[in-house]
Amino acid sequence: MQIKLIAIGKTDNTQLQSLIEDYQKRLSHYIRFEFEIIPHIKNVKHLSEAQQKEKEGELILSKTQTSDVLILLDENGKQMDSVSFSGYLQKHMNSGIKTLIFVIGGPYGFSEGLYRRSNGKLGLSKMTFSHQMVRLFFIEQLYRGFTILRNEPYHHR
After folding, report:
1. Per-position DSSP letters for 5-38, written without gaps between them
2. How far apart, in whole angstroms, are the C-alpha atoms of residue 37 and residue 58?
3. Please, which contacts does 17-21 make with residues 24 or more away whose CB atoms are closer than 8 Å?
4. What is the pLDDT along the chain (157 residues), one digit of tens a residue?
5. pTM of structure
6. Per-residue CA distances from 50 to 27, 46, 102, 123, 128 (Å)
7. Strand partners, 72
């Protein structure tokens, strides 16, 4: 299985980017992982929030195939602890899917089309984090999930 994370807009904080790259490298020891950045839409001043979400949704959907399992990282999604998340990952790996895609939306969230296409929603916290911080937190949780599955000492129970 491959895991892919799709996000809108590049990470402009070099320290944050360095940490993201560190966890990507660590994660590569466990699974094929790809982090794909979709550039911000240009001329958003002339678009409503709904139009911007629609355009971002189209760009995200263009990066997926119908066989992919698509999970939206959404504030109203199901929340779980790290051990439960590792079980969630294991369940998907056991299901035989080729690609599991997680998506971090743009500043206004997701289009209705993306919600309809998605196979689920996952919430990281009830707190609000910047989209750039969510990237780091989520990739770290992926890494943590795989160390839990392998009974490695990274996660303390």
Report:
1. EEEES----HHHHHHHHHHHHHHTTTSEEEEEEE
2. 14
3. 19/136, 20/135, 20/136, 20/139
4. 999 999 999 888 999 999 999 999 999 999 999 999 999 888 778 889 999 999 999 999 999 999 999 999 999 999 999 999 999 999 999 999 999 999 999 989 999 999 999 999 999 999 988 889 999 999 999 999 999 999 999 988 7
5. 0.95
6. 35, 12, 21, 22, 21
7. 103, 121
Point out which residues pair with 102 in neighbouring strands: 5, 71
Q: How far is CA 126 from the centre of its chain?
A: 16
Q: How far apart are CA 40 and CA 7, in angstroms?
A: 10
Phi and psi of 69, rounded to 5°? -95, 125
Question: Measuring CA to CA, which residue among 32, 27, 16 is closest to residue 133?
Answer: 16
Structure tokens at 1: 């299985």
Q: Which residue has the tokens 């969510």?
A: 134
